[in-house]
Every structure is written in C-alpha cells, then in structure tokens.
Amino acid sequence: MQMQQGRYAYSPITKRPDYCWPEGKRLAVYVGLNLEHFAFGEGLGAELAPGGPQPDVLNYAWRDYGNRVGAWRLLELFDALDLPASVITNSAMYDYAPELMEAFRARGDVIVGHGRTNSERQSDLNKVAEAALISEATDILRNAEGVPPKGWLSPWIAESHDTPDLLSEAGYKYTLNWCMDDQPVWMNTNVGRILSVPYPQEINDIPSIVARKDGAAEFANMIIDNFDEMLEQSVGQPLVMGIALHPYLVGQPYRLRQLRRALSHITSHRDQVWLTTSDAISDYCYDAISTLIT
Predict the structure, then answer these.
(1) How far is CA 88 from the centre of its chain?
(2) H or E element: which one contains 274?
(3) How far apart are CA 149 and CA 159, in angstroms?
C-alpha cells in the first residue's frame, strides 16, 4: 500500500464553504520576502553559474548582493507602493545584517521564521536536532522582535515527517511549506491543528528565474496574469495569492524595474483586493472563519 501524507483530506475547491476576507474582499494578496543568510565556503545555496571548488566566491557574492543592495531597493519599492510584506527570515540575519532587520521592523512588517540559515536543510536532521533548530531560530526572532513568530517556512521547503508536529509544539500557528491549494487549509498534527497558508512555487522567483531561466519581463507578466486570473476566479471562491521574492534575484536593477510594473498593477486594484500579510491571513482564519476552512 502506498504511503499517505495524512495531514489533510482531499477537498475540491469548488465544493467548500464560502466566506469573504475583510471588507467583503474575495482575493487576499501578500508578498513573501525572503531574507536569507548563506555561509561562506560551505553549505547550500542557489547558483548563478555552476559553482567551482569552495570557496565559491562568485555565487556567494551574488547572493550577498541581495542583503547589501537588493533588499534595500525592495524596501523602497514597498514604501512607494504602500505595500506590506511578510519578511521570511533566517535567524542568522539578526547578527549578519542587523540594520536590514531594523529597517523592516520600522515598517511594521511581520516576521516569519525561516530556520537558522539557508546553508542547511532541517530535513537532514533527526527529530531532536530538528526540534533544537526550530527552538533556536524561534528564540532569536522572539528576542529581537519582542513577540514570537506565528508562521514558518522551512529553508528549501524541506520537511521531515515530524516537521508539522514540531512546529505546532513550538507554538506556530501556520506553515508556508505546502503549496497544494489557493485557500488556507487545516493540517493535522499530534498536538492539534496548524494552518497551511498558501505560499507559491510558481509565482516565486527561484523556480522561475533560477530553475526555468525566465526573463525579468516574463516573471513580471506571470505575476500580472496570475493576479488577473485569480481576481476573476475569486468571484467563485475566496482565494489567497502569494508572491515569493528573493532580493538577490528581483533586487537586481533590471528585474526590479519589471517587478515594479507588476506590483504597481496589483496595488492599482487595492479597492478590490485585500493587500495583507501571511500573519493577518492566519489571524483571520483562526478568529473569524475557523469553521469554514476545510
């Protein structure tokens, strides 16, 4: 018999209870901005070009551009568009780039747990070590921000069989790891339930730009087309659209110009959609529509 994931049951989106987002909106849109740390001379990391022997200076420096330049340009763009962000953060960023973390804190953006560093995968660890990773990262974010993070995205979207249980035990309210739906979904854990908030793997610059080699304009057009289509679809069902961004990719000037075009298109429809954060989506699901989510 084939193994089953056992975390949620099958449910067709066309046959679920109906509800609305705040103010009667039908489409919730949030930006997930990944602020990531990469170790020098070791560990994992996306590549601009095939890496050579360590230290791989080319790819390390290319990724570090995002923290030194790209993220600051994105912050300016979000300010100009009055757009909130879910800042998906490796805990090592608080030591590595404290000014950057302070800048997003000053905007009032929400912080989502993202492990310690993107140089490692938590799925490579045993249960005790994975729990320690989650605890260590959570403590750093709590101490820095004054409140614990509500949501979690695993580095490299890597889970063990225990991850949802460990996140729930650590007090997390939602996960962004599972991309199986356009609505929030309750998931089972050994200590109750945890919410899966949709996080995109299509409208995501790493699969698009790094894996498929899509151009800057093509990625921007994907965002616009996805938004326009989901806005029409949301007449039938309330939906969530996430936009996953990494500063070392979309913070490059030629990509930033195209991203500005896409996000400007979305914000021009702010009267029709809920421009929000993953935290706010989770809070609304727990507080207002808990029984309507399948």
Answers:
(1) 6
(2) strand 274-276
(3) 18
Q: Provide the 10 A C-beta neighbour count for residue 270.
A: 14
Beta pairing partners, 185? 196
Q: What is the pTM (predicted TM-score) of this model? A: 0.97
Count of C-beta atoms within a 10 Å radius of residue 60: 16
Q: How many CB atoms lie within 10 A of CB 13?
A: 13
Burial class from Cβ neighbours inside 10 Å (0-12, 13-18, 19+) for residue 15 reads exposed
Cβ of 82: how many Cβ atoms within 10 Å?
A: 9
Vertex 15: Cα angle to 13 and 21 (nearest 5) = 65
**Distance, CA of 54 to CA of 52 (rounded, Å):** 6
Cα 234 to chain centroid distance, Å, stands at: 21
* Residue 67, phi then psi, degrees to nearest 5: -80, -30
Are 268 and 56 spatial neighbours (Cβ–Cβ below 8 Å)?
Answer: no
**Per-residue pLDDT, 50:** 86
Rounded Cα gap, residues 168 and 10, in angstroms:
22
What's the chain's length in residues?
Answer: 294
User: Model confidence over 41-61: pLDDT tens digits?
Assistant: 999 999 888 887 889 999 999
Whole-angstrom distance, CA of residue 109 vs CA of residue 118: 21
Distance CA 123, CA 154 (A): 9
Per-residue pLDDT, 1? 60
Of the candidates 58, 19, 25, 6, which has an alpha carbon nearest to the alpha carbon of residue 271? 25
